[in-house]
Structure formats: structure tokens, C-alpha cells
Design a protein that fits this description.
CATH superfamily of the largest domain in chain A: Beta-grasp domain
Number of helices of chain B: 11
CATH class of the largest domain in chain B: Alpha Beta
Number of strands of chain B: 14
Strand order of the largest sheet of chain B: 4-5-10-6-7
Largest sheet of chain A: 5 strands, mixed
CATH topology of the largest domain in chain B: Uridine Diphospho-n-acetylenolpyruvylglucosamine Reductase, domain 3
Largest interface: A-B, 29 and 31 residues
Strand content of chain A: 15-25%
Number of domains of chain A: 2
CATH class of the largest domain in chain A: Alpha Beta
Distance between the termini of chain A: 50 Å
Oligomer: heterodimer
Number of domains of chain B: 3
Structural class of chain A: alpha+beta
């Protein structure tokens, strides 16, 4: 089985890797690039803990081949903070207690930051729909919604 | 979970992709959005020596009305359909369904072509293709051919496509005046397949009676089910509550689901009846009937 040389731009930095075809994007990120902020939860494309932003869209990185991301721009949770300053959604999750155990949080942050790129003023319903592919077993989602509303206000 | 090893190919054109598939035979598989294929490879339910990724072949991602059809490129992602004003305003049967498919993150990857060509009776868009009388366009070694949606599904994960054919376009006839469509789906939670779901496309005549009807069911058998008896029953009739109830009964009688975590056979058949009823009512309303 031939290996593939790929190149991706992850959190603004160009990284190259030589990989097997079957390597999953989440494993590329965690094991080859050693960025462990992106979590593996269910590993069956249900829970959304592994969500990253791939060319502008949030996707489940456990269900994308690393080789499919060749040439792509990827943002992970490590890329949200800019110049030592938290992204508004990160600040929102902190301020509004949008997490307890924190396992779903990286995925939630990626999905909701992508939502706010597309929709500056989402309704509660739109927020709930946007995060419907991200499971949280702690919060009951109430504080996550509040955190996103906080961030939306901050970003306007 | 890690898939069994395979070789990955990323052809730049359809012809190149067809050539690759031709040389790999049963050991080759088309990869589109990967939202069904990758989970099945990870679970080792399937395994192929060669994946042919068509995801970057240019010119297969479009939504346009042309030559009497709504033409949608096979690589059009579900999220693109979801955000299309044309789909939202003129093709509510597609708009109803797309937001009920999987979840928003999966819809950012999954494609219409993959949903149609996968051959999983739990996929939602095959029933729509049947209800609207779609034509499915495929490219193979001998060029292009068109397949009527009702000739496409042969069995569980079996379609009319040969191993070296690729679905390229879904053609839906432009709806005549006084047409309406709807998709109704019962599911337990976001991301689940349907307990039962129904696609309905109707055209009414000037008096409000049914001129054309297409009805199909999702997850009701090993293939998507076309409820042609129910559709025929409607022709020439005013779609009142009594007629709708009778048509829904006829449609549900065509479903042959298996019992599983989503419910018993009896329950699923009755839910198929309820979904057809709801879709029919909404389609009539959208067609401007009562």
C-alpha cells in the first residue's frame, strides 16, 4: 500500500506528513501533529467531540480520511485563541459555565465558532440546531446556548 | 477504529475515475462524501482494496434548472442543498428532507449523489427520487446513460450501477403548475435513520383533483418502496381526508419493514401510514388544494 505525502495548513501553519491511506484526520491531528485538543469520543460520527473546521465547515474528523484533507485549511481548538486572547466562544463557555467535564467542549467550540462566522445573530433554535451533531452529557445544553449567545453579542 | 488498509486514488476527471474502477472491478469503490462508506470501513462491515475518491472532480457540484429539469450534480453537499434558495422555495420535498438527514456536521460532508447511489433503504433521498420521478444520470466506460429512479434500486446496497459506473447527476422534472411535494419522517433522535418516512409529490388539476401522484417510503423494506397502488388510487380524486386516509393505508400495505430497536413490524407499518398521511396533507396544501 503506497503512502501519501500530504500538506495541510493547520491553525495557519503549513504541515506535511507521509501517511497511510487509511489514516483518519483525527489521528493525523492528534498523533502525527501532537495536537490533542481535538478529542475522540464515539469514533462513529455521532458525538462530534472530534469536530474541526475543514475549509470553513465544521466536520467530524473521525470520519474524514487524512488524505482527503490534503491541501485543506484546518482549524482546531488550538487555533481559536489569537495572540493570547480567547476566542469569544471560549470566553462565553467560561463565563456561562458551558461545560462540566469538558470532553465535548473542543467540538462544541469549533461548531459554534463556525456558526457565528455564518450567522452573527443566531436564534436559540438556530444555535440548538447547529449543535445537534455535538453531544454533551453534562450540561443539558442550556449553558452552552447561553455561552454562544454571549459570544454572539461580544462579536457583534 | 481504523479501516483495513486500502489504496487511495484521487482522479482528476470522470473518465480517469471510470478507468480506475474498470481496472479494480469488485475491489474498487467510489468515495464521495464518505459519510456512509467511512463508518462502514471503520466498523469493518466492508473492505475494498481501492477507494476512488471522486470528491475533487470538477463540475459535479451544481443546482440549476435547465432543459425542463432541476439538475443537481452528484457531488452537491447536503449543506449546499439546505442553503439553496431555489430548493427552499421551489422544491419543498427536498428542503423538508435535507434538514432531517443525519446532523449538520455530517451534512457538511455528505453528498446527494452518495445518498442516492449508496443503496441503503434508510437513506432519505432515494424515496424522493422515486416520488418525483427522477432520472439518474451515470457515467461509465461507454459514456453516459440515464436510469429511471424506479429502475435503480435492485436490493440491499445493490443498484443498477455497474462497478465501473458513477452517478453524476440527479434530474427532477420541473414541477407543473399546481404541484406540491412533502417529506415526512419519524426518527428517534438527530442522526438516526427513519422509523418510517414518506415522500409525496402531487400535481392537481384546475378543479383540485389529483392529476399526478408519486409516493415512496424510506426504511420500509430492503429497497426504497414505491407505493404505486396508492398513487394510482389518488388519480382523478379530490384529495379530501377520506381519500388521503385510504391512500395512506394502501401505501403502508406496501411496506415490509423488519423489527429492530426502532420498533416492531406492526408499529413501523402504522407509522408509515401516518407519515404518508402527513406528507399527503402537506403536499396537497402546497399544491394549492384544500
Amino acid at each position: 500500500m503506497a503512502k501519501h505525502k500530504i500538506s495541510v495548513t493547520i491553525n495557519g501553519a503549513v504541515r506535511e506528513a507521509e501517511i497511510e491511506s487509511r489514516l483518519l484526520l483525527v489521528h493525523l491531528i492528534r498523533e502525527d501533529f501532537r495536537m490533542t485538543g481535538t478529542h475522540i469520543g464515539c469514533d462513529t460520527s455521532h458525538c462530534g467531540a472530534c469536530t474541526v473546521i475543514l475549509d470553513g465547515n465544521p466536520v467530524k474528523s473521525c470520519t474524514v480520511l487524512a488524505v482527503q484533507a490534503d491541501g485543506a485549511k484546518i482549524t482546531t481548538v488550538e487555533g481559536l485563541e489569537q495572540g493570547g486572547k480567547l476566542h469569544p466562544v471560549q470566553e462565553g463557555f467560561h463565563e456561562k459555565h458551558g461545560l462540566q467535564c469538558g470532553f465535548c467542549t473542543p467540538g462544541m467550540l469549533m461548531t459554534t465558532s463556525a456558526l457565528l462566522e455564518r450567522n452573527k445573530n443566531p436564534s436559540e433554535q438556530e444555535i440548538r440546531e447547529a449543535i445537534s451533531g455535538n453531544l454533551c452529557r453534562c450540561t443539558g445544553y442550556v449553558n452552552i446556548v447561553k455561552a454562544v449567545q454571549y459570544a454572539a453579542e461580544k462579536m457583534r | 477504529m481504523i479501516p483495513a488498509a486500502f489504496d487511495y486514488h484521487r482522479p482528476g476527471t470522470l473518465d480517469e475515475a471510470v478507468k480506475l474502477l474498470s481496472s479494480y472491478g469488485d475491489q474498487g469503490k467510489v468515495l464521495s462524501g464518505g459519510m456512509s462508506l467511512l463508518p462502514s470501513l471503520k466498523l469493518r462491515l466492508g473492505s475494498y482494496a481501492h477507494l476512488v475518491d471522486i470528491g475533487r472532480i470538477p463540475g459535479l457540484d451544481y443546482i440549476k434548472e435547465e432543459g425542463g429539469f432541476l439538475r443537481i450534480g452528484a457531488l452537491t453537499r447536503q449543506s449546499t442543498l439546505e442553503r439553496s434558495d431555489l430548493i427552499r422555495t421551489k422544491y419543498p420535498i427536498l428542503a423538508d428532507a435535507v434538514s432531517l438527514i443525519a446532523d449538520p456536521l455530517v451534512r457538511n460532508r455528505g453528498t446527494l449523489g452518495g445518498n442516492i447511489a449508496n443503496g441503503d433503504p434508510g437513506n432519505d433521498q432515494p424515496a424522493i427520487a422515486l416520488a418525483v420521478g427522477a432520472t439518474l444520470v451515470a457515467r461509465g466506460p461507454k459514456g453516459e446513460r440515464s436510469i429511471a429512479a424506479n429502475q435503480f434500486y435492485k436490493g440491499l446496497y445493490e443498484t443498477a450501477l455497474a462497478r465501473n459506473e458513477i452517478l453524476t447527476e440527479i434530474r427532477i422534472p420541473l414541477p407543473a403548475a399546481r404541484s406540491g411535494g412533502a417529506y415526512a419522517k419519524l426518527k428517534r433522535k438527530t442522526g438516526d435513520f427513519a422509523v418510517a418516512a414518506a415522500a409525496v409529490q402531487l400535481t392537481l388539476n384546475a378543479k383540485g383533483a389529483v392529476d399526478r401522484a408519486g409516493i415512496a417510503l424510506t426504511n420500509a423494506a430492503l429497497t426504497p418502496v414505491e407505493a404505486s397502488d396508492a398513487a394510482k388510487f389518488l388519480i382523478g380524486k379530490m384529495p379530501d381526508d377520506k381519500t388521503i386516509a385510504e391512500a395512506a393505508k394502501l401505501a403502508a400495505a406496501k411496506s415490509a419493514p423488519g423489527a429492530d430497536r426502532r420498533g416492531s413490524v406492526e408499529y413501523k407499518k402504522d407509522m408509515a401510514r401516518v407519515m404518508v398521511t402527513r406528507a399527503l396533507r402537506k403536499a396537497v396544501q402546497r399544491a394549492g388544494g384544500k
